[in-house]
Amino acid sequence: MQYGHFDEKNKEYLITKPNTPAPWANYLGSPEYGAIISGNAGGYSFVKSGANGRHLRYHFNSNDEPGRYIYVKDLENGDYWSGSWQPVGKDLDQYQSVCHHGTGYTNIVSDYDNIHTESLYYVPLNKTYEVWRMKVRNDGTTARKLALFGFAELTNNNNYEQDTVNLQYTLFISRTYYKNNKILQVINENIPEEQTWRFFGAAGAEVAGYDGDRDTFLGEYRSYGNPASVANGECSNSLNYNTNACGALQINVELQPGEEKEVAFLLGQYDEQGASEILSHYKDLSVVEEELEELKAFWHSKLNRFQVQTPSDNLNNMINTWNAYQCFITFIWSRAASFQYSGLRNGLGYRDTVQDIQGIIHLDHEMALERLRLMISAQVSNGGGLPLVKFDHNPGHEGTPDDPEYVRETGHPHYRADDALWLFPTVIKYLNESGNWDFTNEVVPYSDKGEDTVYGHLRQALQFSLDRMGAHGMPVGLHADWNDCLRLGAKGESLFVAFQLYMGFKIFMEIAQNKNKPEDVAWAQGLLDELDGNIQKYAWEKDQFVRGFTEDNYTIGSWENEEGKIWMNPQSWAVLSGAARPEQARVSMDKVYENLRTDYGTMLFYPPFRKYGLPVALMALFNASTKENGGIFSQPQGWLILAETMIGNGDRAFEYFLNCSPASMNDKAEVRKLEPYVHGQFVESKDSPYQGRAHVHWLTGTASTVMVSLVEGIMGVQPQKDGLRLNPCVPSDWTEFSMVREFRGKKLNIRVENNNGVQKGVSRIVINGEEIQGDLIPVTQLAAENDVLVVMG
Ligand code: IFM
């Protein structure tokens, strides 16, 4: 079943049926002022931290309540509804609603009983408050008298856990006031240094009534769907004191036929003076349109740096808007706040963040650089990464997982084997995109002590693994490798990390070569050869690579096993790293296709663990076919697509893309449940009674892996030190497609012809009328704007 569709031109997703199978969300603002909103206006807001700066209440695991509600009451016939379908939930035969989720804004357009409303929600660029602007129009033939009620349920404490569970305390620390068109809430009023202020104000009209007491607004034994003040047509002018607070403001409007009026509600953590200044900015509401345009321009200018036109709308929508936008959201928000993450994590996960950076490098390498520096400065001087990089990370002065203070603050008593190795693919992408190879000479501190150049940091990342090798000459798995549920410890070995290390050596050699350091190249080459020999000797089993070895030499991911016989990642990573011989790549990737592929994506491994015979396989905690226990983990789908493009299988790469693309499930939304415009963390696979159901929306490393696989793999746009390589790997039935790409400040309009229907292989490139040799367009040959013709086949 379909609940909406993409609007590529406007870079929006339109929810046309508001009764979606799960709350379909959008992100407004940034973690400085964060706001999450569903198609029914459910969601919450916070300043800086979802866990410690929360001022708008949301019940996790609930029916998507409460939210940013604007109620409409007909003062003559007594009927009432809401600008979003929920919470009042009018009969959908009479109530039409289209929610436009856009880049940094959401506009819910509704029609009921000849009244047209548009409820626009956004956080102005670089501001720390939110705006809800309602336009209301009388589409009927008689005059109407309406009351509009803006309602924000305020928390009683910035700490959301305290607000939720410690009511013997938090109910008694907040009170509200009403002053000049706004509700002001103060927490800990009697201790000036502890005070927190919030406001909910109205602009564009005079407030006719208010409630600062939630229970008075809702009324006894009533709900968000039928609040007493709305049903009565008037607020009670209540204020809370030792009860729950809210901001509820009533505005009465009279509308002649065809007449439209607008009002705005504003919400934030400001005291009276700050709130008054903000309200005065909205004296003239035309500023709202300006701010909206500014937001769109901000996001669209980033996304427009790479746009494609291919025969697949699915791919176009994902590359051009939604996958790209999700990459920015995961980059900016990390795993801070969603309808599943409540903001409790006090920092950035090392591996997730370093991978998130990859998703935006092709669109904004300057933005990427700052975060990359931070992550390099979170590398310990022994070469490992800090599992969690605290928001107040202080390079040179941090503890390590061996240090009780760090463990107490972060809960991470162990190193992970993979963390710092993620730097290699991310750093090389940054260097090749920006051309700023001097970055390798930049001196960056280590997290605990000392400093080194970026180049030195990379070498030290290799050293961390080299200092921790197991009996088969492969890196040990420590607390985890990419897979959080594989606990191989100080002696068990991980093939995933072995392939990461393999890739690390190759990238290090490339950089060393460019820096003219032949002794370093030779050092890395020797170690690479040794690792390669060990992989070939111990890890290749007939037609697949195994997943690892436990410390007592049990092979994980062997055909001889009853559970977890074949695993996806070692096969795809053998290809990505370059360790797989061509024949190994072919047979092992075929094996994955035959044994692990489903129509909803490819399983992490099969069969799932049920007997829990293997103590290192913590994934047995989860139901079979769920998450790391043989679920369709979404992040590795990107690696699989990329690996297939590397071995020239455009048809299969595209099939894998279609299997995992959220847009593919747009008309099967009742199966997938999650938003059809964003990737989730995983999809239930074939041993689940709910195969195809997806979970954990928005904040997932999938955004970056799939993005990279589409941009560099399928579209084949691969920045190199001296230019841009164009080497697409596409379905054989694509005869023509085009792309617009900004690279090093130059614009390329690229048209690709594939009249011979090949999957990969470029026979000719013509730039501005001049044919070049090979598939690399030298940066020196780029004009400000360039016409490029690529002929495949
Ligand atoms: O790699 C991890 C990630 O860091 C957090 N989510 C689960 C992934 C797989 O275990």
TrEMBL record:
SUPFAM superfamilies the UniProt entry points to: Galactose mutarotase-like (SSF74650), Six-hairpin glycosidases (SSF48208)
Name this protein carries in UniProt: N,N'-diacetylchitobiose phosphorylase
Highest classification ranks of the organism: Bacteria, Bacillati, Bacillota, Bacilli, Bacillales
Keyword line: Glycosyltransferase, Transferase
Listed transmembrane segments: none
Gene3D superfamilies from the UniProt entry: 1.50.10.10, Glycoside hydrolase, family 65, N-terminal domain, Maltose phosphorylase, domain 3, mpn423 like domain
Any one GO MF annotation of this record: carbohydrate binding
Ranges where the Glycosyl hydrolase 94 catalytic domain occurs: 298-716
